[in-house]
Task: structure prediction
Amino acid sequence: MANLPHLRGLIPRAFPTFRHAYRQLAEAVLTAGTEVAPRGEPTLELEGASFCVLDPRDTLATGVNRRFNVRFAAADALQVLGGFADHAWAAQYNPRIAHYGEHGAYGPRLAPQMPGVLERLRLDSSSRRAVALLWDRDRDLDYREDATDYPCTTEVQFLIRGGLVDLHVTMRSNDLWWGTPFDVFTFSQLQLTVATLLGREVGTYYHRTTSLHLYEKDWEAAAALTDPETAEPTYTPGGLGWRGETWADVLAVAAVLKANGHPDPGQPLGRVLTPAEEWYAARLAPRPK
Result:
């Protein structure tokens, strides 16, 4: 019975926005987490943690007493939506990313599966088969001593319920300080993109992880998180694409946004950007020297 507190992580919690979830998630890990030390690094961990965000259009972790790199969040999401992995490019927004390889990057793993996901949802709006897998048993079960980039997310599943597009994200491991805020934003952008292409409204974002944890070096900062400074919604872009477009169109606009945010010349697209795509362009634009 002494180990029961960690089971609190199994209780799904619904939050209006991710900003409202973040402090409470940190508090749960800090107060009910179990001490474990994978690779010798002390952490506090909740097993089987789950929560949901009722408004995936408000998932930026701002206004909660932490520095949050919105430019990197945009770059990270664009790599997933655009089906590419370019850590050298992303490092201009967050130098930490340069220390990781690209083996476990989500973009190249998701891109080939997304046309099938969209087709499944178009053919059967009640389908339970719109699943994309990110963990590859042929590549990821082999032990590599130098690996730092095994996929933390194992699968994503889309459901249309009540006419709304829900997304269920399943993770094997999630660092609440350096991972979760960026993961929730990135995958909510994926959800919003799918909803836009299907011409539907977005529903609920569900997040489940086997290990929700905080490293010891981040405990103090996590304990200082606050509830949102304002109840007013913060602007979150609505993913990429226009209604009725294909995943190939999403890949094309992502390539243009990447080029425009980089010293290389941009490439023509042949259509105007959506307001959400304009948001990406502004965040990814090089800063004046």
Summary: The longest strand covers residues 201-215. DSSP finds ten helices and eight strands in the chain. The beta strands are 13-15, 34-36, 43-53, 131-133, 153-161, 164-171, 174-175, 201-215.
